[in-house]
Amino acid sequence: MLENIKDKLNAILSKLKGKHLTADLVEKILREVRIALLEADVHYKAASDLIAAIKEKAVGEKVLQSLTPYQQIIDIVYKEFTSVLGGKEFILEPQRGRLNVWEIVGLQGSGKTTNTAKIAYFFKAKGFKVIVASCDVNRPAAIEQLRILAKSNGLDFFENSEKKAAAIAKKAREHAERTGCELLLLDTAGRLHIDKDLMDEALDIKKLAKADEIVLVVDAMIGQQAAVMTKEFHEKLSVTGAVLTKLDSDTRGGAALSVRHISGAPVIFAGTGEKIGDLEYFYPERVASRILGMGDLLTLIEKSKESFDEEKAKESVEKLLKAEFNFNDYLEQMKELKKMGSLESLMEMIPGFSSMNKQMRAQIPTENDLKHIEAMILSMTPAERIDPRTIDFSRRKRIAKGSGNSLDDVNRFIKNFEMSKKMMKKSNFKKMFKNMNFPM
Amino acid sequence: MGFFDFFKGIFRKKEKPTPSRESIIASKLKSIFREGRKDPLREAERILIEADTGIDVTLELLENISKDRAYLKDYEALETALKREIRTALSGSEKGLSYGPGKSIILVCGVNGTGKTTTCAKLALLLKNRGEKPALAAADTYRAAAGEQLDIWAQRISVRLYRQDAGADPASVVFDAVTSFQKNPDHNCLIIDTGGRLHNNENLLHQLEKIRKVIHKASGSFPAESLLILDGNTGQNAVNQTETFMKVSETTGLIVTKMDGTAKAGILINLYKKFGIPIKFIGTGENAGDLKAFSVNEYIERIFF
């Protein structure tokens, strides 16, 4: 799947090289984006609104030097997504020193009970005094499920013999207040947003328990119904936050965008597995790239923009081309690369890399090789770094000792370095660099 | 050729060369971008996408319709044509439950939270009402109180349940249940509820494979039905789910749950086109009796409702 997208991108990239952000071009690319959105289950209307907003921003935008127009638009799209999803992660915590009541609501099977326990566990670990109560009197053994989850994970569970959901909620609040709890989590029955009686029940629970937060649990694999459902829940209960569950599946998770777009409420948590600890704060940027299905490219765009010093890069490319490249430049390049992450992960991000055969891959130095190389260069004197030709046998022996490598390693490295320089001189690398989208 | 040209052509009733497949799709895509233009195609597109039909199938359906330009004049005509198109695409998808003669095993699986346990109880009641002698087996030993949940159902509908303690190995639970079932003359159908498993969780998929092998070992044959339970609210991910479960558990039918809400489950068109697995039932509520045979006609009406 991902490979397909990379290939597709490659094809587009090669077509668009050197162009500017014209309305036509933007439209062409946004068409792809729109399909990506709909394939990711973003709501039809939400997708239209987003595309319209992005179009306005993208047309006429100045193309950054390090990016192709395509990358530039994807970058704008990604930024817009991230901001629609709330920008940074939304850290919701109960207020200390008083009782906070959170009501957990959602459709059947979205994962309310599991996530009630997960959230309780999450905040208990942060030192809050937490208690859980089940108001799910509908589903057989739902109360038992929460009781077992609570007991096996050392969480307090509110025992009672009430038969009505709202009555349980009220009692649970009273109990939590009495016992000095800071967070009461109310698990509720799964309900359809069009079931008036059950929606009324959820509202009763909210009122009687004086719930501070209404947390909507959303299955990340949900389709267009995410918007319909969110709207109803929000209108009835004023949703204050959401949990996106089952994000450990391979869904693209467009529901996140729909929920946020419709309710304005932030997605706070992401459920990432069946175990009690599988809950984390929701990071909009991660899901934004997941929805776009272009995560790797996005990361590369971000990294090359943020960490690459363009002036320095230009300088070293020029030197490289004139074959004046010395060990100082090499070191500089390595530093720049390191800022962008591990070499392997960087390589994986470049479209087409994964299609390279094993032999070609083996030519690329590993992270470990780079460490050794760095040590060797650092063991050289400033003069040696500038002019490698001065490094004779005894100097090589010293470098080997100083860097913890064998003499063979040092010999091979210097030989390779000289060879690369010669190759640069001979071949038409100039052309190659110009054609590369990856800033070098 | 642009989309507008295409339309101009229709309305001027001028003869134009038939556009190639690519260009039709391209112009459809363009239509997506012409905001605020209330043309029938666009309206149909919105309805289909909002029903979770997915972009590929939506474009394909609209493309087929557009071949006859008469349909492009008004929405009513277009909708009628679309309904016919979908009906054709789904022909053969309605199919009843296969079991018997003799002892039959029905394996129920799916991702988390689709309603497997409830559906198992519904299936048991349905078989009971048909005069069969069903029994249930609780092979979800992972989720807290899953066994209890099925136990309560079994008591409500008075059906025998085979279960073991929570945490037991699901495959061994299945082996024991199938072995007892094979010997017990009081039952002729065994419905096995399994734990929810995400289709990208290799370990849990292996567990399901093992369950199938165990069924074969204990009964001499693979399940008569291997049913995949799909949440009717599921979006495009349903394709991945079905593809994987088909491979791992040789799915013989789908049951689509939670169809008493606003879910339209448009993805079924794509699933049936791609995999040809019949759709056996839809779940329409929280009671044991809320299981209906899948009807293509009702389904289509729901999409356009």
How would you describe what is shown here?
Chain A is α/β, with parallel strands linked by helices and 440 residues long. Chain A is 57% helix and 9% strand. Chain A has 21 helices and 8 strands. Chain A has helices spanning 2-16, 23-39, 44-58, 69-84, 112-125, 142-152, 165-178, 196-208, 225-237, 255-263, 284-292, 295-307, 310-321, 327-339, 343-349, 358-363, 367-378, 382-386, 393-403, 407-426, 429-435, and strands at residues 100-106, 130-134, 156-157, 183-187, 213-219, 241-245, 267-271, 279-281. The two termini of chain A are 28 Å apart. Chain B has helices at residues 3-12, 21-33, 40-50, 55-66, 75-89, 116-129, 146-156, 170-183, 202-219, 237-249, 267-275, 296-304, and strands at residues 104-109, 134-139, 160-162, 189-194, 225-231, 253-257, 279-283, 291-293. Classes of the chains: A alpha/beta (440), B alpha/beta (305). At the A-B interface, helix 2, helix 3, helix 6 and helix 9 of A face helix 2, helix 3, helix 7 and helix 10 of B.
What descriptive keywords fit this protein?
heterodimer, A: 440 residues, alpha/beta, 8-stranded mixed sheet, 21 helices, 8 strands, disordered N terminus, B: 305 residues, 49% helix, elongated
Spatial separation of the terminal alpha carbons of chain B: 34 Å
Task: Tell me the strand percentage band of chain A.
Answer: 5-15%
Biggest beta-sheet profile of chain A: 8 strands, mixed
Instruction: Tell me the Rg of chain A in angstroms.
Output: 28 Å
Biggest sheet: strand arrangement of chain A? 3-2-4-1-5-6-7-8
Total strand count of chain B, please?
8
What would you call the quaternary organization? heterodimer
Write the layout of secondary structure elements.
The complex is a heterodimer of chains A (440) and B (305).
Chain A: H1 2-16, H2 23-39, H3 44-58, H4 69-84, E1 100-106, H5 112-125, E2 130-134, H6 142-152, E3 156-157, H7 165-178, E4 183-187, H8 196-208, E5 213-219, H9 225-237, E6 241-245, H10 255-263, E7 267-271, E8 279-281, H11 284-292, H12 295-307, H13 310-321, H14 327-339, H15 343-349, H16 358-363, H17 367-378, H18 382-386, H19 393-403, H20 407-426, H21 429-435
Parallel strand pairs in A: 1-4, 1-5, 2-3, 2-4, 5-6, 6-7
Antiparallel strand pairs in A: 7-8
Helix pairs in contact in A: 2-3, 2-4, 3-4, 4-11, 4-12, 5-6, 7-8, 9-10, 11-12, 17-19, 19-20
Chain B: H1 3-12, H2 21-33, H3 40-50, H4 55-66, H5 75-89, E1 104-109, H6 116-129, E2 134-139, H7 146-156, E3 160-162, H8 170-183, E4 189-194, H9 202-219, E5 225-231, H10 237-249, E6 253-257, H11 267-275, E7 279-283, E8 291-293, H12 296-304
Parallel strand pairs in B: 1-4, 1-5, 2-3, 2-4, 5-6, 6-7
Antiparallel strand pairs in B: 7-8
